[in-house]
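Hi Y.,

Following your request, here is the sequence exactly as I used it, all 35 residues.
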Amino acid sequence: HEQARVEPDTVVEVVQEGYRLGDRLLRPARVVVAT
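Below is the corresponding structure, written out as tokens. Let me know if you'd prefer a different format.
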């Protein structure tokens, strides 16, 4: 797994997608961000 060059605060991987019901966010997505 090589480290790609990304800008800071770029979402590099969505760990768990959030659930949405209409306009309500039932659960925020968990993401890994580059720092």
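The chain has no helices and four strands.

Thanks again,
Q.
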